[in-house]
């Protein structure tokens, strides 16, 4: 059974003729225990899509969707009490910048206590014991002493671990990690990702990882969705997408990886720029930068789905008139 199902998700800001659609028709599915990576450049709409799912888009933003469903519960029609029961407990999110997401005036242990108190009703000594146990789970040294520390007294990596402890406090079935290693040095990045992978397995939770780091995707995810200019343009399994990308944009992202440019004077790079939301029409948004584009690309791109054999289920799909790989099409 699919745990999360999103169809036709759109997010707009502004009113009337000045309204700008920054997320346009996003479809996503996440199965229980799956690790899905949502990949794309900064500004492609990854974080906004997940904030919309969490109900964190404030006015003048507007969220629309044909379906926004978690474990059979329609999040679009759920009343505030139903949403509160789900968000923070069954669905949790780790935000990009722990330093600015944590409250600087409250000790980190008390901040970990917040979701335990709100969703599980814990209090007193049991609440503190559980909070310290969570800090130990995320590998914070001397957790009992650091319970009373403030965010400014901890390193960036330690604060990120506190955020993870808060997110897993109620054993969510879906954890959304939004660029969880932003602003951390390389060594700490590896430690945080290793921690997330361990917790995902131990808690049997689905993980939706927002990132632009394809190396992290290769080591962590089982499936990938690629975003460009507010739209999903390709979905495929890992590692197949690294060997056989369908969409020209995905191929360009992979071609820019440093390990694929050894010996070259310059990294491979795409010409042009990502279009601003108000510049997007009905045609393919990547067409102005794509060497494969032709007159057909002026129309709305169609989804083409592919299988590697008749015995395997669908393994890849691209929103493109001219996908790269000539596999057996299923539609």
Characterization of the model:
This protein has helices at 46-53, 80-86, 98-101, 108-120, 124-137, 143-146, 156-168, 186-202, 214-220, 240-243, 248-255; strands at residues 4-13, 20-30, 35-39, 61-64, 67-70, 73-74, 91-94, 174-178, 206-211, 223-228, 231-237, 303-307, 316-319, 328-329. The chain is an alpha/beta fold and 331 residues long. It has 2 domains: 4-221, 3-Layer(aba) Sandwich (Rossmann fold), CATH 3.40.50; 251-329, no CATH class. Strand 12 (303-307) and strand 13 (316-319) form a beta hairpin. Helix 4 packs across helix 5 (124-137) and helix 7 (156-168) runs parallel beside helix 8. 39% of the residues are buried. Residues 327-331 have low confidence and may be disordered.
Main attributes of the structure:
single chain; disordered C terminus; alpha/beta; 331 residues; globular; 5-stranded antiparallel β-sheet
Give the distance, in angstroms, between the N- and C-terminal Cα atoms: 23 Å
Give the CATH topology of the largest domain.
Rossmann fold
Within CATH, the superfamily of the largest domain carries the name P-loop containing nucleotide triphosphate hydrolases
Mean pLDDT: 91
User: What does the oligomeric state look like here?
Assistant: single chain
Silhouette: globular
How many individual domains? 2
Specify the biggest β-sheet: 9 strands, mixed
Q: Rounded to an integer, what's the Rg over CA atoms? A: 21 Å
CATH structural class of the largest domain: Alpha Beta
Helical/strand content category: alpha/beta
Number of strands: 14
Which percent bin holds the helix content? 25-40%
Unreliable stretches covering 5 or more consecutive residues = 327-331
The total of helices stands at 11
Biggest sheet strand line-up: 7-8-9-3-10-11-13-12-14
């Amino acid at each position: 059974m699919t745990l999360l199902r999103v169809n036709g998700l759109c997010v707009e800001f502004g009113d009337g003729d000045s309204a700008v659609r920054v997320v346009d028709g996003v479809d996503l599915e996440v199965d229980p225990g799956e690790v899905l990576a949502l990949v794309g450049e900064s500004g492609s709409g990854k974080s906004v899509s997940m904030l919309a799912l969490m109900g964190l888009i404030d006015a003048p933003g507007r969220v629309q969707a044909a379906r926004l469903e978690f474990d059979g519960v329609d999040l679009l029609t759920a009343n505030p009490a139903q949403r509160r029961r789900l968000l923070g407990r069954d669905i949790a999110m780790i935000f990009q910048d722990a330093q600015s997401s944590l409250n600087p005036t409250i000790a980190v242990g008390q901040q970990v206590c917040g979701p335990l108190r709100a969703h599980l009703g814990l209090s007193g000594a049991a609440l503190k014991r559980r909070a310290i146990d969570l800090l130990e789970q995320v590998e914070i040294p001397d957790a009992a002493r650091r319970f009373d520390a403030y965010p400014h007294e901890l390193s960036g990596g330690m604060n990120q671990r506190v955020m993870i402890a808060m997110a897993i406090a109620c054993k969510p079935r879906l954890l959304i990690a939004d660029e969880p290693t932003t602003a951390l040095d390389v060594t700490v990045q590896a430690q945080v990702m290793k921690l997330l992978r361990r917790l995902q397995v131990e808690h049997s939770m689905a993980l939706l990882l927002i990132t632009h780091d394809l190396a992290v995707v290769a080591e962590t995810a089982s499936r990938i969705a690629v975003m460009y200019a507010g739209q999903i343009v390709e979905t495929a399994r890992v590692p197949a997408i690294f060997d056989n990308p369908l969409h020209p944009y995905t191929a360009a992202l992979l071609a820019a990886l440093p390990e694929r440019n050894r010996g070259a004077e310059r990294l491979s790079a795409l010409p042009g720029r990502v279009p601003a939301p108000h510049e997007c029409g009905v045609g393919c948004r990547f067409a102005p930068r794509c060497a494969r584009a032709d007159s057909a690309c002026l129309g709305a791109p169609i989804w083409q789905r592919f299988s590697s054999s008749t015995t395997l289920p669908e393994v890849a799909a691209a929103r493109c008139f001219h996908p790269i790989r000539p596999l057996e099409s299923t539609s």
